[in-house]
Amino acid sequence: MPDSKPPLPPFTAETARRKVQAAEDAWNSRDPERVALAYTVDSQWRNRDVFLCGREAITEFLREKWRRELDYRLRKELWAYTDDRIAVRFEYEWHDAEGRWFRSYGNENWEFTPDGLMSKRYASVNDVPIAASERRLAPRCGPFA
């Protein structure tokens, strides 16, 4: 399958963890096109109060997100899984153009097609202002370490 995205369902604890790590790595690249390739062309999203449908809309959403959320750094944690679904909790840190830092917390529910592409992503997110000195997810070495 040329458009497949391993690991493929049905998930085990190990393959679900690998899928979550792959998502974390892709999102930390801050490359909208790379991230969008993990989703079906007609993927359904809810991100906060925004509802999207399709890879093109996802790509544009991510471009705008990373124009606003600067120095974005994310951590995801596997919460639960079934044959073709994964739930994660996450936190990420970022700052706005004025230099104000935030930590965003949330949960996501994912559903996958047999080829490993995500067909549904529902995310609930809350932002908390933090001081730069309170950052926990700062890169250790270089921008993507």
Automatic annotation (TrEMBL):
Signal peptide: none annotated. SUPFAM superfamilies: NTF2-like. InterPro entries: DUF1348 (IPR009783), NTF2-like_dom_sf (IPR032710). Pfam families: DUF1348. This is Nuclear transport factor 2 family protein.
